[in-house]
Amino acid sequence: MSKTDEVDMTRITNEEIIDVLVMTSNNLTGIFKILEELKAKMLALEFDIITLKAERKDEKL
Known about the structure:
mainly alpha, about 75% helix, rod-shaped
C-alpha cells in the first residue's frame, strides 16, 4: 500500500467507530435471525421427509 492509499486514522472519531460497530452488530443479529429461521425450516423439511419415507414404507407392506 502506498502512502497515498493510507488512511489517516487520527481523523476517525470514537463515535464513528462505535457507529460502525453498532451497524455491524445489528447486521449480524439480522443474519443470525435469518439463520435460525432457515434452521427451523430445514428441521421441518427433514421431519416431512422422514414422515413421507415412513408412509411409503407402510404402503409397500
